[in-house]
Amino acid sequence: MVDKEILLKILPLLITIVLGYVLYKVNFIKESYLEVFKKVVVNVTLPAGLLTAFASIDFELKYILVFASVFAACGFMLLIGMGLAKIFKIKSPYFPYLLTGFEAGMLGYALYGGIYGLDRLSEFGIIDVGQVLFVFLVTVPMILGMGKKKTSGIFSESIKMAVKSPIIWAIFIGLLLSAGGINRLLGTVAYDMVKNTLDFIALPTPFLISFVIGSGLKFSFRQMKLESLTAVLKVALSIGFAFAILYFALAPMELSSLLTIPLFSMFLLPGPFVIPMFMDSSNREQVEYVSNTLSIGTLLGLLGFILISII
Q1: Which residues lie closer than 8 Å to 27 by C-beta, 6 or more apart?
Q2: For the segment 161-185, what is each residue's pLDDT rounded down to a tens digit?
Q3: Looking at residue 249, what DSSP letter applies?
Q4: What domains sit in the chain, N to C, each tagged with a CATH number?
Q5: Interatomic CA distance for residues 24 and 216, integer angstroms
Q6: Where are the alpha helices (DSSP H) in the chain?
C-alpha cells in the first residue's frame, strides 16, 4: 500500500518541476532568473538547512568510514567508465565522468528534503560527503586538465573552489557543532532562535531547486543513443556499488536502518552538474552530449526517488 503522505509530498515537487519546464519553454522565465535562483539555493537556503541538519545529529566516528566508502566507490566507477570507453571505443572524453559522482546539491537534497523532511537532510548528507570530496579532488581537476600540457595549479584551483563552497562549509561546521555537543543547548532561547531562523531560511529550498530542475530539462533529439546508453549504464553501475556499500560497509557498522534509503536515493542521481561548467564549451557536440545525458539522468533519478519512497 502506497503511503498517502509520501505521495502528497512527491506531487508538489513534480508539479513544480513541470511548472519550471513550461514557464521556461514559453519564455516567462529567463536564464538570468534561474542563475539567481541557483545562487540563492547554493549560497543561502541549502547551507542553512544543511547546517541545522548536521548540527542536530549525534556524530559517530564510523561515519568517516561511510565517507571513505562512497569516495572509493566513485573512484572505482570512474575506472570502470574509462575501461568501458576503451572496450566499446566511445570517443567522448567525458563519458567516464558521467558514470561517477552524483548531483546531490542541486537535485538530491531538494528531493530528499521535500519527501522526508528538511530535518532529515543529515541522513542524505552523510552519504553525500564522500562524493563531494571526490568531485572536487578528482573529477574537477581531471576535467580542467583535459588537453592541457601544463597541469600544475589545477588541483589547487579545485581545492580553492571547494573551500569557497558554502555547502561544504555548512556540512563541516554542522559536523563540528555536532561533535562538540551543541545538542546539549537544545531548548535554550539562543539555540531555538538560531535554529528557527535557519529553518525558516531553508524552507524555499525544495521549491527553488525543483523549479530550476524543470527549467533545465533540455533535450536535443537528433542523436540520443549514446546519451541514453550512458544514463542507463550510470544507473546500473550505481545500483551495483550501492549494494556493495550496503553489505560491506553499512551493515557491518549497523547503519543499514539509518542510511539505506539515502544511499540508494543518492546513487540513483545523475552525474554532477559541474561537468558542463568546466568542460570545453567550444565543442558543441560534446556539450550537447553531456547536457542530454544529464537531462535523461535527471528524469531517471526522479523516477528512482519516487519508486524508493513508495516501496
Answers
A1: none
A2: 777 778 788 888 988 888 888 878 8
A3: I
A4: 4-310 (1.20.1530)
A5: 8
A6: 4-25, 31-40, 46-55, 63-87, 109-116, 121-134, 140-144, 154-163, 166-179, 189-202, 205-215, 225-245, 256-267, 275-278, 284-310
